């Protein structure tokens, strides 16, 4: 089995479902071109039957990029017909069709039975396949589905022509080891599983989307469905930048992606600004504080060797440099470092004197900035200036 992980980006479909984050077709094209440059393998561009805007976006994105373009459908004839039409210009089009697979979805969402759902799934897969595109089947709420039934469903849709089968944890319910076991179970029990790529699509309701995605990949899945900044329904989807950097950082996983990590920060900022959806400062990889050090002990250790407190070089994700934030908790090492960046070379007694003055300023202000340091130096007569 190849260890190359396909990155399926759904920022423009699942991510765009967030209230207030809707983008125009032109804006989607800008993001899609950047996603292509970033190195994603497939872009899910919309749900064509849901609105004329989504239909148009799938049409225009299909023209605009050379990577795979995917259109979402329910397992209904009219959905698949409209998606196929929207994908007409795609260099590599994919229809993403599917149906609920858990008993709760089967009974209360579809008022149906396992047998009827299985029949519908096989029919929809075959019908989509006949359109001449790649077909991905999603078994909605697979995280809570009966495993034996899920295995039967997966085997049946692969037999019907599915190229990719998506095993979503739609509700973000699973624990990583159990989600991983679900994927492993499918590899053990689905006879034709090697004819398709297994995909993982996790939601973050319990903060486990990334962990579950990695668990799925470790158990044989070879496609990860992700969004920039982890945006998506409710608590969001798996974050693209987290999955990409976990794979890049942990060589022991023996996996690769096509992602150029140096473009991650740029994409994060673009999507955040366009969707007017701020990134939380402590967000892994792309948050404003992801490479900022503020406590004295950490600053001292970081300045001696960045590897003491950083496992990723900020330049690898496109962040220009780490930052040393000066607060009342900072020590002499951090103050000296920031003074040196401003061109000052304080001696030991000068630094001691400056540090006493610095603490007074830092107690008054939360964050001591360069202008404060310049004033501090000007008001410290002992100092031999640059
Ligand atoms: Zn989803």
**Count of helical stretches:** 14
Identify low-pLDDT runs: none
Kindly name the structural category. Answer: alpha/beta
Radius of gyration: 25 Å
Structure summary, number of beta strands: 10
Oligomer: single chain
Helix content: 40-55%
User: Globular, elongated, flat, extended or rod-shaped: what is the shape?
Assistant: elongated
Strand percentage lies at: 5-15%
The CATH architecture category of the largest domain equals Alpha-Beta Barrel
In this structure, how is the largest beta sheet organized? 8 strands, parallel, barrel
| Count of distinct structural domains | 2
**What is the CATH class of the largest domain?**
Alpha Beta
Q: What is the terminal-to-terminal distance?
A: 61 Å
Which kinds of small molecule does this entry bind, naming each only once? Answer: zinc ion
What is the name of the CATH superfamily of the largest domain?
Aldolase class I
Any idea of the CATH topology of the largest domain?
A: TIM Barrel
GO molecular function, one term: 2-isopropylmalate synthase activity
Pathway: Amino-acid biosynthesis; L-leucine biosynthesis; L-leucine from 3-methyl-2-oxobutanoate: step 1/4
Pfam families: HCS_D2, HMGL-like
Family: Belongs to the alpha-IPM synthase/homocitrate synthase family. LeuA type 1 subfamily.
